[in-house]
Amino acid sequence: xxxxxxxxxxxxxxxxxxxxxxxxxxxxxxxxxxxxxxxxxxxxxxxxxxxxxxxxxxxxxxxxxxxxxxxxxxxxxxxxxxxxxxxxxxxxxxxxxxxxxxxxxxxxxxxxxxxxx
Length: 117
Fold this sequence. Notes:
Largest sheet: 4 strands, mixed
Shape: elongated
Number of helices: 3
CATH class: Alpha Beta
Mean pLDDT: 83
CATH architecture: 2-Layer Sandwich
CATH topology: Nucleotidyltransferase, domain 5
Strand order of the largest sheet: 3-2-1-4
Radius of gyration: 20 Å
Distance between the termini: 56 Å
Strand content: 15-25%
């Protein structure tokens, strides 16, 4: 029966038109460069959403230095581009240094006019 289903799906035009592959081919991945020191390469991403705290925070912005593996986690009320940029500046750049490169998952809070003028 399994083989019959597979054959049907492979020969069914509508099935093939709506068959979306959710995996990337290995040649489509970009390797992450190895930094030679701290503050050269950081990664940023959100862990969300959580139940709102008494202060109204429900998102956590995680900033990781790829050289030292040091991670900074900051609780935030929203994950807007404005909040993300301001938090990165105030809670990372002003405390540590300006990174040479920032890696992200290209979420909407990282991919807009604030990040790409």
